[in-house]
Amino acid sequence: MSIEYLTINEIKALLGETDKPRDRTIITLFLNTGVFLNELVNIKIDSIDWESRMLAIHGNRQREIPLNNQAYEALAKWSKNRIDNHTSSLFITNKGIVKNLSARTVEHIIKKYSERAGIKKRVNAQILRNTFAVRLFSEETSKEKAAAILGISDYESISRYAQAAKRPPTVNIVPEDLAKLDTRPFYVRFISKLFPTIPRIAKPINEIKGPITPSPEETVFGREGVIEDIRSNLKKNQSVLLFGPIGIGKTHLLKHTAKLLGANTLYISTPAPLKSMLAQICSKLNPEYEKEIKTRASVREIIDYILRSYSDQSLILIIDNLNNIKSSEIEPFVMLLEKFTILGAVEDTIPRLKQVWWKFKQIEIKPLSEEASKELVKYLTQNLAISDYEMLETKVLTISNHLPLAIVDMIHQVSHRPVVNRDVIREVYHEAGIHYRDWTSGIVVLWGMAIISRFVALGTHSFEGYILAGFGTSVLVTVRYFVFKMR
């Protein structure tokens, strides 16, 4: 039985009509490695050893196939276009929900481009594999090497391919064995050797559904030095106050520290109302405290009970939003500070509570470093299909000003999308990236100068100066209006 395969002109026509990187890579692999259809659809992102340029085939015909330069370049270019997604398959769908490519779809792709190229034969995956085998046997390649590359062992198949090659074929497989099968023009091969395409290593995707949330109990990014400083001070029974703007990660640090320190901590989200906070402390010290204290006890009576009940000096209070303390509550809170080691957090150390702040070792929380911000973005996007990760990363880091909460919010903006493409990335926005400058003083000064100029122009009978000053005043009024509107 004769073997049907493509001629060189048909190969060039087929590749010439294949314009999409994924489809071109599929056809190029068939023509340069001779893999079976089921082997191609089962190729994984880790099946390629980019350094040694080898393609690992698993299954009944397990083997390693060297990648010639044409196959390597096609794979490298596809690696740059492939969207990171939940499946580890190398070839995936590029529309709708991302999933691994089926054998039927691959056959449809081959048929589509062969018809577009005007090839009259009924081209399919087997014919492309036959084309590779015949061309391989037509070169100075031993039967053993050819059979090892093709994954066949029966004598009949080997003989049929050798006969189809119309040349008697003349076991370590090397890339040189496939180099002559490169169908590209000489200058293209020469340039690709000088400037090879650098592949993009595919980002592994986990199977978690829904957006990733950085749990303070599990992970923290770029705060190792701060955490060590906190723990060092707490060990010395020195109360610590974290301060920094909204979104800087203070709450995350408090919860993370609570997890690190274990059972001897009590996390309180806010000190207001004060009685509610005191009740939480009482419950921690004695779950049955309500039996020992009257129902409508005053704040002072509850604090007295706490001070009597607490003796081992081991409990650390971790209190967020300390700005919520009222002026009338300063004295009872200071009493707690005298007894407990407290780790707290505020946006800013407002002057009215300076009597409280004096008791703390203050640590300013600054924005994340560039490296830590990138780590956080990578962590949050680990289950997202992203067409241009570098573009998303750059956009997020630029707008967020390296504030952790802003980074989390922006990634969550796109987390519901099946594929985060460039259009979606362009829509990403956050207020953290907006900086307002107060030009009010400058505008008022310029306005005053314009008015003075008008009076000077009137006094000197300068008609041109009067018009110019009036025009300047109008401009300043317009600018003032839009500045206030924007703010």
The gist of it:
By secondary structure, this protein is α/β, with parallel strands linked by helices. It is built from 22 helices and eight strands.
Count of helices?
A: 22
Looking at CATH, the homologous superfamily of the largest domain is: Intergrase catalytic core
Approximate strand percentage: 5-15%
Low-confidence stretches: none
Strand order, largest beta sheet: 5-6-7-4-8
What structural class do you assign from the helix and strand content?
Answer: alpha/beta
Your description of this structure?
This protein is an alpha/beta fold. It folds into 4 domains: 187 residues, Orthogonal Bundle (hpI Integrase, Chain A), CATH 1.10.443; 141 residues, Rossmann fold (3-Layer(aba) Sandwich), CATH 3.40.50; 53 residues; 47 residues. It has a 5-stranded parallel sheet, sandwiched between helices. The protein has a 3-stranded antiparallel sheet with strand order 1-2-3, with no helix packed on it. The protein is flat.
List the defining traits of the structure above:
single chain, 487 residues, alpha/beta, hpI Integrase, Chain A, Rossmann fold, 4 domains, five-stranded parallel beta sheet, three-stranded antiparallel beta sheet, 7% strand
Helices and strands, with pairings:
Elements (H helix, E strand, L loop, with lengths): L7 H10 L3 H13 L3 H5 L6 E2 L4 E4 L5 E4 L2 H13 L21 H14 L8 H14 L4 H8 L4 H11 L10 H4 L6 H9 L29 H12 L4 E4 L6 H12 L3 E4 L5 H12 L13 H11 L6 E4 L10 H10 L1 E6 L7 H4 L3 E4 L5 H11 L8 H12 L3 H11 L7 H6 L12 H20 L3 H24 L1
